[in-house]
Specification:
The chain has 413 residues and is α+β, with helices and mostly antiparallel strands. The chain contains ten helices and 14 strands. It folds into three domains: 2-14 and 135-209, no CATH class; 32-130, no CATH class; 219-408, no CATH class. The strands form three sheets. The chain has a seven-stranded antiparallel sheet. It has a five-stranded mixed sheet with strand order 10-9-8-11-12. A two-stranded antiparallel sheet has the order 13-14. Strand 4 (152-156) and strand 5 form a beta hairpin. Helix 1 (29-59) crosses helix 3 (93-111).
């Protein structure tokens, strides 16, 4: 038994009306769009103030790299903004504070030497494709409520009620999180998001999870992530990439249609709607495929080792970039890591510079002749020392498993 965080994404249906027939306050489209704008306004105004302050210090010869953006200075600036711009009071207080927290996190990522994050930029309406804001659940101000007709609706602080749709399982979890007497599930916050003109509410919940007990033999497995195949296991099993040809063909088709019409025209908007539809189909199909594979791996494994591949560098290769962006192996790795931690399965990451494909899994000698991007076409090779014939990906998976077991200080079953 352990406490885990889980995200539940539900679709919401805000209306144009401000109140329903019974006089209840509704979270309509205008209020939600206004909150999107307030979030962007606070984020941009704070960033502009920080940039102007740094430029002023540079004129007087100060070192601006030593300036730390923290919560106390941002809170002071937020009070100044609230005094000058009264429309900011339309947003919930935690939503206003979250805009500055996101900016502080962006600066922390930028100054982190282990990350290659870029300097924060303005969230203009044209450059932002996904609009969102977050409301923290304080005193149960985000919950599932019944309206006067007895239907379950989402109650958002300062916005009102809104209709939603989700599965029966998630519906029950959200109802338990809304019950103050049920301590097994707790709603931490909710993020209202707009993607492709569709509104969503993403609940972050904290719940007590009991790992599934599976009777039967479980194996230790090393996984090699690739481009030609999604994954190759140390036991020889291969997971192919998902066939997304139909979805990509339709996406390319409607992208060309949009290029041939004037932005804002009726045909342009219709092509954009169909483009969004096929993008959603592609993402849903891929997520479903990855969830099933991750469930299979966790169900049949007691130890999982993977290599923390530098997938960002793969995107710079013109021969690999399309496959990487289409199949998103990093999403698969993140899902696998999260599921393993949730089910108490030992999960080990091998450092990315470990030469798993070049080492012979039989004699542990290294063959540098197959290193480099120019030798990626070599899928089978023979060890020059012990003359063992290897399949490149399976050999790498075996080496990853052995290295992972060496890290945790155990041996193969």
């Amino acid at each position: 038994m352990k406490v885990v965080n889980k995200a539940i994404k539900v679709r919401i249906y805000p209306t144009k009306a401000d109140r329903n027939d019974d006089g209840e306050k509704k979270a309509n489209i205008g209020k939600i769009e206004s909150n999107f704008g307030i979030y962007r306004f606070i984020y941009d105004e704070t960033l502009i103030f920080i940039n102007n302050f740094k430029n002023l210090l540079l004129q007087y010869g100060y070192n601006v790299e030593k300036i730390i953006v923290n919560h106390s200075s941002c809170n002071l600036f937020l009070k100044m903004l609230r005094h000058d711009f009264k429309f900011l009071e339309k947003a919930e207080s935690s939503s206003r504070q979250q805009a500055q927290k996101d900016l502080i996190n962006a600066f922390n990522r930028y100054y982190n030497p282990n990350l290659n994050s870029e300097y924060p930029i303005l969230k203009t309406r044209k450059n932002t494709k996904k609009f969102s804001f977050r409301i923290i659940n304080n005193n149960n101000n985000v919950r599932i409520n019944k309206d006067k007709n007895g239907f379950d609706k989402i109650k958002l602080a300062k916005l009102g009620i809104v209709k939603f749709k989700t599965s029966k399982k998630y519906h029950e979890i959200l109802l338990r999180g809304s019950d103050t007497n049920d301590e097994s599930v707790k709603i931490k916050h909710v993020t209202v998001k707009k993607e492709n003109n569709i509104y969503y509410a993403i609940f972050n919940i904290e719940k007590i999870h009991v790992p599934e007990t599976i009777i039967g033999p479980k194996q230790q497995v090393g996984i090699d992530i690739g481009c030609g195949k999604l994954a190759v296991f140390s036991n020889g099993q291969e997971i192919p990439n998902l066939d997304l040809t139909r979805e990509t063909d339709q996406i390319i088709k409607y992208q060309k249609t949009m290029n041939n019409h004037q932005p804002g025209s009726i045909r342009y908007q219709e092509a954009q709607r169909l483009l969004n539809k096929w993008w959603k189909k592609l993402l849903n199909k891929r997520n479903d495929y990855y969830n099933k594979i991750v469930h299979y791996i966790v169900k049949n494994s007691s130890f999982v080792a993977v290599q923390n591949e530098n997938i960002i560098s793969w995107k710079t290769d013109k021969d690999l970039s399309h496959s990487i962006q289409l199949n998103a192996p990093r999403d698969f790795l993140n899902k696998l890591e999260q599921k393993c931690k949730q089910e108490n399965i030992t999960f080990v990451k091998i450092y990315k510079y470990y030469p798993s494909t070049q080492i012979c899994s039989k004699c542990q000698k290294r063959n540098k002749k197959i290193s480099g991007k120019q030798n990626l076409h070599i899928r089978n090779w023979e060890c020059p020392h012990c003359h063992t014939h290897h399949h490149r990906d399976r050999n790498a998976a075996i080496n990853i498993l052995n290295k992972g077991l060496q890290i945790v200080g155990t041996t193969v079953q």
